[in-house]
Structures are given as C-alpha cells and as structure tokens.
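Example record

The entry below shows one chain as it appears in the dataset: sequence first, then structure tokens.
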Amino acid sequence: MSLTLVLIVVAIGWKFRPAPVRIRALTGLLPQDHEVIRALPDTIGLLTVAVHAGLSPELAMRRVGRFLPPPFDTATASVLLAVDRGARFAEATDTLLALLGESARPLARALAATERLGLPLAPALDQAAEQARNNRRRQSEQSARRLPVLLCFPLVTCILPAFVLLTVVPALLGALSALN
C-alpha cells in the first residue's frame, strides 16, 4: 500500500518537475546568463593577456576570438563583422550586450570606454575581471545554497518511506502480534 503511494508521489513529482528554464526564471537569470557569468572571467583574462602583449582592443579580439568559450566566440565574431562593415569599435561592442545580455556589461563598457574616452584598456579589463570573478563566485554560492532545497524532494519521497518501512513497520507489527 505505502509502496504504491510512494511510486504515485514520485511519478507525480517527475511529471510536474520544474523545467530548468522555469527554475532559472525564478532566480532572475536566463540559461544563457549562467553561461556568460561562468565564462566571462576567462574571456576577460584572455583579452587582458592580449592587451598586455601590446595589441589594440580590436586586434586582441581578433587574435583571442577563436580561443573564447562558446557564448563569447559568436559574439566577438559579430562585433568584428560589424567593425569590418564600417562600424566604430565602440558602437560594435554594443552588440555584446544585445547578444550576451546584461552580464557582459563590464566587458562591453571597458572596451567601449577605451575608444570613446581614450582610457587605457588593461586597468579597465583588470577591474572588469575582478567584478566578473565576484559575480561567478556569487552565482556558485547561490547554487550551493539552493542544493539542500532541491534535495528535499528525493529525501521525502524515497529515503523517508524506506526508513519507515524498515524501522517503524516491524516495530508496529511486533507490538500488534504481542497484543494478540
């Protein structure tokens, strides 16, 4: 009886489990935002190395573009395509925000400020990398805090009924047989 009840509860839970998109929508981040936050410090690090080697921001993006993680490789390709078509580099970096979302704002702001204001790029990239690493650490800590809540469902539906069947039921059967 209780085993069928457990199986029914597990089946209902499996059928109506929250989709990853809904879970991420509840946290306020889209699936792509998680990838961008995860890959942004590495991307900025590669660009920083290229800039410290003496390359301009545009040349740094051209050289490093093929080594960038998946969300950034296509975004930098579209930025460079816009530059090749005649757009200014600062205006082309605005497409990073359009393609990658608000998570890429520190990188886009640093790249645009270099051309618009004439600021040195390396310190701006260092500051953007520090901010990106902090965001990635915050996201990881948030995911780690969410794990116990997500593990409550398997605990209640699988382990708790098994515990009751193995400990409480034999004691009840022994007590009932002693009464007879």
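Notes for this example: The chain has a mean pLDDT of 83. The two ends are 23 Å apart (CA to CA).
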